[in-house]
Amino acid sequence: MSDPNGLIQPGRIAPGFTVPATPDGGLTGPEQFRGRPVVLAFYPADWSPVCGDQMALYQSAAPVFAQYQAVVLGVSVDSIWSHRAFAESRGIEFPLLADFEPKGEVARQYGAYQPRGEAARALVVLDPAGTVSWSHLSPPDVNPGADGIFDALDQLAADRKVTVG
User: Fold this and answer.
1) Which residues form the Thioredoxin domain (predicted)?
2) Which of 11, 62, 105, 133 is most buried by a 10 A CB count?
């Protein structure tokens, strides 16, 4: 379902999935959050410096995401145990999803899988109905920040005539 050039494009129905989010077997996916915007933040690896800074930024922006009623889901091919340690070390409270087995299956569905065996650094914003409203691919060594996400969430709010804040 991705664009021939890579990352899934706006207007597409987002592929559904559930993958492990917790060591106790809890599964999470965007369908659980229908009715709310969902931000899928694909990233290469838990312990890389850029990924750590990126995920910590999204955690620090949690109050802003809450104003949009948006859910952030981090997605990488790392295991749930790696995610758990990484989240604890960086104070990350939003779900980090283990696209671990089969490795990269979710990233592949979204056009965000790299041949080197990692997820690309990609952002995908889903509208409350599960349609891609915005997507962005960053170079692996560049933190994409949150401005593009917030612009996409602003547009969703405007389209729905929802007051943010």
Assistant:
1) 8-158
2) 133
